[in-house]
Amino acid sequence: MAETLRMVVAVFGNIASVSLYAAPTITFKRVIKKKSTEDFSCIPYIIALLNCLLFTWYGLPVVSNKWENFPLVTVNGVGILFELSYVLIYLWFSSPKGKVKVAMTALPVLTVFCIIAIVSSFAFHDHRHRKLLVGSVGLGVSIAMYSSPLVAMKKVIETKSVEFMPLPLSFCSFLASLLWLTFGLLIRDIFVAGPSVIGTPLGILQLVLHCKYQKRRSTQEPNKQKENTEKVDLEMGNGKELVTS
């Protein structure tokens, strides 16, 4: 029964997380159409890529005991594909100065992951210490990712309008955080549940702000609302990167 419950929670957590990873595709269609990254930032996606790499590695038998954390591998594997695609699209359509900025940010991030992977594989010879190293770094990266929605929430409070914070994105963020918090508690893994301890309250706060300022949203011009929504999708990192799984 307990195993079935964990599997059900993991499956729904995967679905909610993949929805978050896919959310910025609308914005990147705009980037491709305009052939310009405008004033959007790629940093949230690079951080999200590192997060997915770390937790995919964490879930593999090299770090975890056999396939005890297989759900982390599936969802973060999909996340790697999404986030890497976003970074490559941004790199292709950015200005020469922007390309340099992306390279200077991405290369150190990928170097950090490679170092952690090598150290965890060869410096430690048991799953406990490997999980401690990879999980601790992953936890720190995940917590850093949660600063992205704070930018949107600050904008909502300042403008008293939720046009800067799409409801589907906020709901999926809350749902994914809640599900992975539950999964982490069920398997008693602090590194899986830890990021969602912060993400779940932030998701609730986003929904509260929607309830408070929803009426003002209908007064916004449709075109302006769509433009701002796309911009915030990119600035927030969608997700995704808002999750550890």
TrEMBL record:
Residues 223-234 have a biased composition (Basic and acidic residues). GO terms for cellular component: endomembrane system; membrane. Residues 218-245 are annotated as: Disordered. Pfam families: MtN3_slv. One of its GO terms (biological process) is protein homooligomerization. Keywords: Membrane, Repeat, Sugar transport, Transmembrane, Transmembrane helix, Transport. GO terms for molecular function: sugar transmembrane transporter activity. Mediates both low-affinity uptake and efflux of sugar across the membrane. This is Bidirectional sugar transporter SWEET. It comes from Phaseolus coccineus.
